[in-house]
């Protein structure tokens, strides 16, 4: 991630720290090191919050702050929860430097310390038109482990119509038995407000036995209550026996 150099030395130091942690995070994601991903997530969040909360005094630094957020939006495009947070942060910066839209209150910045406080209703922000047009396989799961939504790539992989998947158990639709418990544990973490990654093995309707890397995140309803989980599945790898090709 390279966005240029801040004029303000404090912003420059914060940006360098965020960039280093972000490179480590992206490498950990590529390597499938879930424990390191979680650790780096915890380290980068307060740094990013401090960087975005800092009020720049120079036009070039304001531009770089906004450019930083758009860079994270591109890098995290496959994680719906991250996209929502970054979009909220970008709105905060626009309102800080240019003022809120007439008749609208200023946007509150997201921070890790505010996870237990009331937040915007994610369910209202779920846009099926957008999700249906994303290339990644995306599913929304209720707290009783049933599909609430699956976009076309997800439904196609599962070999079912989108509407037919609604209400079906996640564990009973082409998910291989050996990963049912890890999937349950990942969903339980999402229901508790956590984000993370897992590997899941499916019996695909198109490609046979495949392994998919997935990111899980909570779906928040009114008053910040977690009403479900969002699963975003990356590229599929075919399996030969018990080994991914």
TrEMBL record:
Domain PAS per the UniProt entry, residue ranges: 123-194
PROSITE patterns per record: PAS
SUPFAM superfamilies: PYP-like sensor domain (PAS domain)
Entry-linked InterPro entries: PAS (IPR000014), PAS-like_dom_sf (IPR035965), PAS_4 (IPR013656)
Name used for this protein in its record: Diguanylate cyclase
Source organism: Rhizobium wuzhouense
């Amino acid at each position: 991630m390279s966005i240029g150099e801040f004029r303000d030395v404090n912003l420059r130091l914060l940006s360098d720290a965020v960039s280093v942690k972000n490179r480590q995070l992206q490498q950990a994601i590529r390597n499938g090191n879930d424990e390191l991903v979680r650790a780096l997530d915890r380290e980068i969040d307060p740094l990013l919050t401090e960087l975005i909360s800092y009020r720049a005094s120079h036009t070039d630094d304001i531009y770089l702050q906004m450019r930083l957020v758009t860079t994270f939006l591109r890098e995290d495009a496959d994680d719906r929860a991250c996209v929502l947070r970054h979009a909220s942060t970008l709105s905060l910066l626009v309102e800080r430097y240019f003022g809120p839209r007439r008749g609208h209150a200023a946007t509150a910045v997201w921070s890790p310390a505010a996870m237990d406080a009331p937040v915007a209703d994610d369910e209202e922000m779920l846009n099926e038109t957008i999700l249906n047009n994303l290339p990644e396989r995306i599913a929304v799961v209720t707290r009783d482990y049933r599909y609430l939504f699956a976009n076309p790539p997800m439904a196609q992989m599962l070999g079912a119509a989108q509407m037919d998947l609604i209400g079906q158990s996640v564990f009973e639709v082409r998910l291989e038995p050996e990963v049912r418990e890890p999937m349950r544990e990942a969903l339980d973490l999402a229901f508790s407000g956590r984000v993370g990654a897992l590997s899941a093995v499916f019996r695909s309707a198109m490609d046979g036995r495949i392994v998919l890397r997935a990111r899980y995140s909570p779906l928040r309803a009114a008053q910040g209550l977690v009403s479900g989980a969002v699963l975003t599945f990356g590229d599929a790898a075919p399996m030969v026996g018990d080994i991914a090709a």
